Structure formats: structure tokens, C-alpha cells
Amino acid sequence: MLRFWRATINSRNGLAFAIRSEQAIREEVVALALSLPLAWLVGATVMRRVELVATVVLVLVIELLNTAIEKLADRLTMDHDPQIGRVKDMGSAAVGVALVMAGLFWLFALAERMGAF
């Protein structure tokens, strides 16, 4: 139980640090807060509502991982390194793919709600 408690504290500390230090994380936390009530308006079923919120959570998770990669890379060296640049670009691409996926889920749910399907 102690291990679980410590892991919970570490997770809270990591999320708090990310929120304080990264604008993108703050924006995605706001998007998550907005998605909770909006999912109830847009989602036609309970499962669709869960899916809509889950896609926003997934974007936040990937952004947290991308931030961790960037912080680690910056800790290794602040000098320009092409390989580190490619790693950072791949992390950014992961966030971009997740954002597109979330956007498509929300557009599909809106179309479904409006009777297009």
C-alpha cells in the first residue's frame, strides 16, 4: 500500500510540475475540463461520451510523454543535436496525430448527433 501511495504522490507531483511549466499541458487540461460537459451534449450514447472524453485524455497523456522527452533531451544537452531534434520532432508528431484523431472523433460524434449517420 505504501508503494501505491508513493506512486500516487509522484504522479501528482509530475502533473503539477507539468501544469506549472508547460502552456500546452495547461491548454489540454482546460480542453479536458470543457470536454466533460460537452461530451454529454454531443455524445449520442453513454459509450460515445466516454470515447469523446477518453480521446482528450489520450491527447493529455501523449503531451505529458512528449514533455518528458523534451525535458530529458534538454537535460542531456542544450546544444543543437540533429538526433535529439528528430526525437523531439517525433514526440511532437505523436501529439499532432493524437490531436487529429481526437478532432475526428468529435466531428464524427457531432455529425452523428445531427443525424448525418
From TrEMBL:
<feature type="binding site">
    <location>
        <position position="70"/>
    </location>
    <ligand>
        <name>a divalent metal cation</name>
    </ligand>
</feature>
<dbReference type="GO" id="GO:0006654">
    <property type="term" value="P:phosphatidic acid biosynthetic process"/>
</dbReference>
<keyword id="KW-0460">Magnesium</keyword>
<dbReference type="GO" id="GO:0005524">
    <property type="term" value="F:ATP binding"/>
</dbReference>
<dbReference type="InterPro" id="IPR033718">
    <property type="entry name" value="DAGK_prok"/>
</dbReference>
<dbReference type="GO" id="GO:0005886">
    <property type="term" value="C:plasma membrane"/>
</dbReference>
<feature type="binding site">
    <location>
        <position position="22"/>
    </location>
    <ligand>
        <name>a divalent metal cation</name>
    </ligand>
</feature>
<dbReference type="Pfam" id="PF01219">
    <property type="entry name" value="DAGK_prokar"/>
</dbReference>
<feature type="binding site">
    <location>
        <begin position="88"/>
        <end position="89"/>
    </location>
    <ligand>
        <name>ATP</name>
    </ligand>
</feature>
<keyword id="KW-0479">Metal-binding</keyword>
<keyword id="KW-0547">Nucleotide-binding</keyword>
<comment type="function">
    <text>Catalyzes the ATP-dependent phosphorylation of sn-l,2-diacylglycerol (DAG) to phosphatidic acid. Involved in the recycling of diacylglycerol produced as a by-product during membrane-derived oligosaccharide (MDO) biosynthesis.</text>
</comment>
<feature type="binding site">
    <location>
        <position position="63"/>
    </location>
    <ligand>
        <name>substrate</name>
    </ligand>
</feature>
<keyword id="KW-0067">ATP-binding</keyword>
<protein>
    <recommendedName>
        <fullName>Diacylglycerol kinase</fullName>
        <ecNumber>2.7.1.107</ecNumber>
    </recommendedName>
</protein>
<dbReference type="InterPro" id="IPR000829">
    <property type="entry name" value="DAGK"/>
</dbReference>
<feature type="binding site">
    <location>
        <position position="70"/>
    </location>
    <ligand>
        <name>ATP</name>
    </ligand>
</feature>
<feature type="active site" description="Proton acceptor">
    <location>
        <position position="63"/>
    </location>
</feature>
<keyword id="KW-0812">Transmembrane</keyword>
<keyword id="KW-1133">Transmembrane helix</keyword>
<dbReference type="GO" id="GO:0046872">
    <property type="term" value="F:metal ion binding"/>
</dbReference>
<dbReference type="GO" id="GO:0004143">
    <property type="term" value="F:ATP-dependent diacylglycerol kinase activity"/>
</dbReference>
<feature type="transmembrane region" description="Helical">
    <location>
        <begin position="52"/>
        <end position="69"/>
    </location>
</feature>
<feature type="binding site">
    <location>
        <position position="22"/>
    </location>
    <ligand>
        <name>ATP</name>
    </ligand>
</feature>
<keyword id="KW-0443">Lipid metabolism</keyword>
<comment type="similarity">
    <text>Belongs to the bacterial diacylglycerol kinase family.</text>
</comment>
<keyword id="KW-0444">Lipid biosynthesis</keyword>
<feature type="binding site">
    <location>
        <position position="49"/>
    </location>
    <ligand>
        <name>substrate</name>
    </ligand>
</feature>
<keyword id="KW-0808">Transferase</keyword>
<keyword id="KW-0594">Phospholipid biosynthesis</keyword>
<dbReference type="InterPro" id="IPR036945">
    <property type="entry name" value="DAGK_sf"/>
</dbReference>
<feature type="binding site">
    <location>
        <position position="92"/>
    </location>
    <ligand>
        <name>substrate</name>
    </ligand>
</feature>
<feature type="binding site">
    <location>
        <begin position="24"/>
        <end position="28"/>
    </location>
    <ligand>
        <name>substrate</name>
    </ligand>
</feature>
<keyword id="KW-1208">Phospholipid metabolism</keyword>
<feature type="transmembrane region" description="Helical">
    <location>
        <begin position="90"/>
        <end position="111"/>
    </location>
</feature>
<keyword id="KW-0997">Cell inner membrane</keyword>
<keyword id="KW-0418">Kinase</keyword>
<keyword id="KW-1003">Cell membrane</keyword>
<keyword id="KW-0472">Membrane</keyword>
